[in-house]
Specification:
Chain lengths: ~160, ~130
C-alpha cells in the first residue's frame, strides 16, 4: 500500500500490477487445464464458487480436483470454455487491508457440435497479501445480468 | 510525452475506463456521472450528453435489452499531451441473448481525460463503430 497526502491508504501501482498479473495467471492456468497452477493462485484454504458446476471448492485438493472435473465434463460432451477473458477490472482496498476485485468476464465456448458462442458473467472476489504475493482468498463467478445487482457493485 | 505519465496515473485511467463500462452495463447513473467532469460529455450513436444531469438521464433511459450487455474494453492506449491524457481503446459489446450471447457491436472510444479535484476524469468521450 502507499500513503497519500490525506493519509487515506491506497493500493500502490506495484500492488495493482501484481494483482492484475495474478488474474492473468489464473486465466492461463484454468484455460490450460493446469490444476496445480490454478490452485496456486489461491491461498491454501481459498474458495472458488463455481457458477457452472453450482458448487464451491475449498482448499488446494478440491481446487485441483475441479479442473479435473471440468476436463471430464468435456470428455462427456459438455461445452468447452475456450478462454477466460476478464475485463473492466476494478480493485478496491478494504479497511481490513484486503482487496475487493470486481471484473466482467467474457467466455468464448464451443459446444459438441463445434458451435461457438459466448458465456458472460462477472467476478466478485477477495484478494489478500501473503508472503508469496497476492492470492485469491475467495472467487465468486456470478451471472450476467445479475438479478441481485441494483446498479453497479462499485463504491 | 507519454513517458511523463507515471504508473499510478496510467493505472488510475485504466480503472476510470473500467468504471465507465460498469456504469453503462449496470445502468448506474451515479457511477457514470462520477467518471466525468461536471461539464464532461459523451458522444454516441444516440446523441451527445453534456454535464452530469444529461449523463444521468442517458444512463437511466437505457432500455432493458441494452442493460443485458457488457462492454468489453481492451487495448487501451494512453498518450499524455500537456495536462491532458488522450485515451483510445477498443470495445466489444456482447449482448445477453438468453442461453447464447453474441457480439452485438464493436468499435473504439476516443477520450480526453483531465485532472479534476485530484482525480483523472473524462472531459469528453466518444464511441465510434469499426
Amino acid at each position: 500500500m502507499s500513503a497519500t497526502s490525506d493519509s487515506v491508504p491506497r493500493l500502490s501501482a506495484e500492488d495493482r500490477l501484481e494483482i492484475l498479473e495474478l488474474l492473468a495467471r489464473y486465466c492461463w492456468a484454468i484455460d490450460c487445464d493446469d490444476g496445480p497452477a490454478w490452485a496456486a493462485t489461491f491461498v491454501p484454504d481459498g474458495v472458488f464458487h463455481s457458477l457452472l458446476l453450482d458448487k464451491s471448492f475449498s482448499g488446494y485438493d478440491e481446487l485441483v480436483g475441479m479442473i479435473e472435473t471440468l476436463r471430464q465434463r468435456r470428455a462427456e460432451g459438455h461445452d468447452r470454455n475456450l478462454i477466460h477473458v476478464p475485463a473492466n477490472v476494478v480493485l478496491e482496498l478494504r479497511d481490513d487491508g484486503k482487496v475487493r476485485l470486481v471484473a466482467q468476464l467474457l467466455g468464448p465456448r464451443k459446444g459438441a457440435n463445434d458451435q461457438a458462442d459466448f458465456a458472460i458473467g462477472w467476478y466478485d472476489d477477495v484478494v489478500v497479501r501473503t508472503p508469496e504475493g497476492w492470492r485469491f482468498e475467495v472467487r465468486r463467478h456470478k451471472h450476467w445480468p445479475d438479478p441481485d445487482l441494483a446498479g453497479s457493485p462499485l463504491r | 510525452m507519454s513517458e511523463a505519465l507515471g504508473d499510478g496515473d496510467r493505472l488510475a485511467v485504466q480503472e476510470l475506463v473500467s468504471r465507465y463500462a460498469w456504469a453503462l452495463d449496470t445502468s448506474d447513473a451515479d457511477l457514470m456521472a462520477s467518471v466525468f467532469t461536471p461539464d464532461g460529455a459523451f458522444i454516441g450513436d444516440l446523441g451527445t450528453y453534456t454535464g452530469h444531469a444529461q449523463l444521468r438521464s442517458w444512463v437511466e433511459s437505457r432500455s432493458a435489452a441494452l442493460r443485458a450487455t457488457q462492454h468489453f474494453v481492451s487495448n487501451v492506449m494512453l498518450t499524455f499531451e500537456g495536462d491532458v491524457i488522450l485515451e483510445r481503446s477498443a470495445c466489444l459489446i456482447i449482448g445477453d441473448g438468453g442461453s447464447q450471447s453474441g457480439v452485438q457491436s464493436s468499435g473504439f472510444y476516443r477520450g480526453r481525460v483531465v485532472r479534476h479535484d485530484g482525480a483523472w476524469l473524462f472531459a469528453e468521450r466518444s464511441f465510434h463503430h469499426w
